[in-house]
Design brief:
- The structure is a single chain.
- This protein is α/β, with parallel strands linked by helices and 483 residues long.
- It has two domains: 10-226 and 436-448, Aldehyde Dehydrogenase, Chain A, domain 1 (3-Layer(aba) Sandwich), CATH 3.40.605.10; 231-421, Aldehyde Dehydrogenase, Chain A, domain 2 (3-Layer(aba) Sandwich), CATH 3.40.309.10.
- The protein is 43% helix and 17% strand.
- The strands form four sheets. A seven-stranded mixed sheet has the order 10-11-12-9-8-13-14, sandwiched between helices. A six-stranded mixed sheet has the order 5-4-3-6-7-16, sandwiched between helices. It has a three-stranded antiparallel sheet with strand order 1-2-18.
- Helix 4 (69-95) runs parallel beside helix 5, helix 5 packs across helix 14 (439-445) and helix 9 (240-252) crosses helix 10 (272-286).
- The longest helix is centred in the first third of the chain and has 27 residues, at 69-95.
Length: 483
């Protein structure tokens, strides 16, 4: 059975270390898992999602104050099943040794080389609150496909969902297979110090620095999935209505609490007002009302709501033009949750907080530009983002944007969608992350690629390196040292 809630302090570290020790012992005792065993574990994870989808939706909504049931089924349940099924379908081929070429002339004498993908052992997973189920189960697809065990620390910001996952995993996995640890920041800190064989952290860049520092004590390799300010470039050749609808679909999903959410938008100067109108129209179409609309999700808690409001007030205080998109003119001051109307900040200055921090909510700055080179220079002058989005029909301009900027990933003529492609690696670059997973890339991230070389039987190969070195050896060396 998975572990019960662990409190903070030294006892937490000891209890978690004991679980890790049991997992490592089981890993060594059982040896590399067969494809059938890995598929069995993946099937158990899929069954948890399918059989408990309604309970999952209820728990996440409880944690958010309100969260759209359909959104949870789409982004946390369905979007977790897909990666698991993809891994299940392909893991047998992923597990096969990969042949590699042997340098001339060793191959002529019968030498061989290959890569074998071995399970690492136990992978630690620190998952965030914004998609608490998806960002737990999706990495598990690669972790389990690679034949590893897992210890999971979900967010304390979503206690109902974290406790539900702890209970559900305990019904189908022994703690030597998958264990869920629930608890607060002290538990999370102790968790990040454990000597895992690999650690995946998804969350804020500021917290990642602490996680990386803690992992370094045991030289634990890391995959960091962070965030950053993902820009959108709307080309002069883009359809404004279509671009606005797609951008706002991504921005308003989960109330903008997505690491890949469009963070700010570049629009040609002459089309800024047209784009603002198109945004207002698209929001009204999707959400004629917001406050009591079951389709619209709440900000996670009061602290984050106040943070978002402070961005808007800061922009106003610094002379910014703010447009609240509130189709039904509703009053959000009295409500049972923490909903916030989408808010636009037009042509913000760089000294505004909204242009300095990752927004992670339904606030969207819109910046006018004259030439696309301005957008490229601006993006390259700031931290590399997790994603970049381009809308337009100019292939040359599209290529210029994609080749002259660096981002974790990119989607053209939509937002966020590249993360849903299981055959594409998902990850950041620099401050937006380190390493990647999903599909084959996830399998390889959570595997050790062991190089294996079989020496040729020919004595000539051994004699080349063996003393004493005479004229024959010197002649062979000279024949290979040439341009």
């Amino acid at each position: 059975m998975s572990v019960v809630e662990i409190k903070g302090g030294d006892a937490a570290a000891i209890a978690m270390q004991e679980i890790l020790d049991r997992q490592k012992t089981a890993h060594l005792r059982e040896g590399p898992l067969s494809a059938e065993k890995r598929i069995d574990w993946i099937n158990r994870a899929i069954a948890l999602l399918v059989d408990n989808q309604n309970e999952i939706a209820d728990a996440i909504s409880t944690d958010f104050g309100h969260r759209s049931r359909e959104q949870t089924l789409l982004t946390d349940v369905m979007s977790s099943i897909g990666p698991l099924k993809h891994a299940r379908a392909h893991l047998k081929s992923w597990m096969k040794p990969e042949k590699r070429k042997v340098q001339f002339p060793l191959g002529l004498f019968g030498a061989k080389a290959r890569i074998e993908y071995q399970p690492l052992g136990t992978v630690g997973v620190i998952s965030p609150w914004n998609f608490p189920v998806n960002l737990t189960f999706t990495p598990l697809a690669g972790i389990l496909a690679a034949g590893n065990r897992a210890m999971i620390k979900p967010s304390e910001y979503t206690p109902a969902t974290s406790e539900l996952m702890r209970r559900l995993f305990s019904t189908v996995f022994d703690e030597t297979e998958v264990a869920v640890i629930v608890g607060g920041p002290q538990v999370g800190e102790a968790f990040s110090k454990l000597p895992f064989d690999h650690l995946l952290f998804t969350g804020a860049t500021s917290i990642a620095r602490h996680v990386m520092r803690a992992a370094a004590e045991n030289l634990v390799p890391l995959t960091l999935e962070l965030g950053g300010k993902s820009p959108v470039i709307v080309s002069d050749t883009a359809d404004l209505d279509d671009a606005a609808a797609r951008i706002m679909t991504g921005k308003m999903m989960n109330a903008g609490q997505i690491c890949l959410a469009p963070d700010y938008v570049f629009v040609p100067e002459s089309k800024v007002e047209g784009f603002v109108s198109a945004v207002q129209k698209s929001v009204k179409t999707m959400y004629p009302a917001l406050r009591d609309n079951d389709d619209y999700t709440s900000v996670i808690n009061q602290r984050h709501l106040e943070r978002l409001k402070s961005y808007v007030e800061d922009a106003k205080a610094k002379g910014g033009r703010v447009v609240e998109v509130n189709p039904a003119n509703e009053d959000f001051s009295q409500q049972p949750s923490y909903k916030m109307a989408p808010t636009l900040v037009i042509n913000p200055s760089d000294d505004m907080k909204v242009m300095q921090d990752e927004i992670f909510g339904p606030v969207l700055p819109i910046k006018g530009y004259r030439d696309v080179s301005e957008t490229i220079d601006y993006i390259n002058g700031h931290a590399r983002p997790l994603a970049l989005y381009y809308f337009g029909q100019d292939k040359a301009e599209e290529n210029r944007v994609l080749t002259r900027t660096t981002s974790g990933g990119a989607t053209v003529n939509d937002v966020i969608m590249h993360v849903s492609m299981e055959d594409l690696p998902f990850g950041g670059v620099g401050p937006s992350g380190m390493g990647s997973y999903h599909g084959l890339d996830g399998f390889r991230t959570f595997s050790h690629a062991k190089a294996v070389y079989h020496q040729a039987k020919s004595k000539m190969v051994a004699e080349l390196f063996r003393a004493p070195y005479g004229p024959k050896t010197r002649k062979r060396i000279a024949s290979m040292i040439k341009k």
